[in-house]
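[09:14] KT: can someone run the structure on this one? pasting the chain below
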Amino acid sequence: MALRAFLSFAKFSTFFQGGRQIDPSAHTIKSHGATLARNHIHDWLILVLLMVIEVVLNIIHPFHRFVGRDMMEDLKYPMKGNTVPAWSVPLYAVLLPITVFICFYLRRRDVYDLHHSVLGLLFAVLITGVLTDSIKDAVGRPRPDFFWRCFPDGVAVYDKLGGVVCHGEASDIKEGHKSFPSGHTSWSFAGLGFLSLYLCGKIKVFDRKGHIAKLCIVFFPLLLACLVGISRVDDYWHHWQDVFAGGLLGLVVATFCYSQFFPPPYNDDGWGPYAYFVAMEESRVIANVNRDSAAVQDTEDRRVTNQVANRRNGDHLFTPFTYLSPTLEAMEMGQK
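[09:31] RB: done, structure tokens below
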């Protein structure tokens, strides 16, 4: 019986809506989506700019740091493929969170929540990407498998200063100087970290009721991001410092971007975006104004009705207010 009550509609609504009564048709894509997008047109244009910068950073060559003979001992790990392919990162770091956002939108019909969560996620991922690739290109740290990228035949060649003279594939050498920080890890923690914060607010993890099981839902995206980072070390594409720095970078950026649109998850209003509460407050103010206007109009209508009745009874001389309306006078004369 307890489980059945928990799964009831009322319980489910309270669980995901923070105990508040929500009008499911108040703010939908159809009613407010276009206006909301126009209000944030500059944000979307900045996203496009970030995408262009990200493409440029991947095209240019990184700094080729000096790599000497004595440094090769830590750079002779074998070249392996990626356990987590690069093409899969946008799927789980961007599309998966957006799918979750859409599910909540279908439940609550809150376009502010959908728009701001998607916008915040894209900003988190793209800002993280730009920062990560900027640092990669500037630092130029060699990957753990740099030896085999530089000397695919195993024959090491050095100049008179002891620096490497690579004769491998140009693309492999270019990629070999992009070890710090880990891009897979930073993107994973940016996207999945944002999703974790989003879920933390939606299911009210910090509602002071002691439901520790909710933490499992929140920690699951972070666990996935951690496993991605571990795979980068296991594949010998990154040193552990690269993964640690990438994870920290992605999580910090995700937290900043989330905080732009949503209250902290531990806040009583952490289940919804700031814009939603602003819209609700504006709606309440308008409703109060309309209600007050209706009350004033009703009072005025009753006063006029009383005056007309007094005129009909010949008591207009004692009426403290006169209502000189030609239309009303004509109507009275016609009725008499």
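[09:33] KT: thanks! The chain has two domains: 20-272, 282-335.
[09:34] RB: yep, looked fine to me
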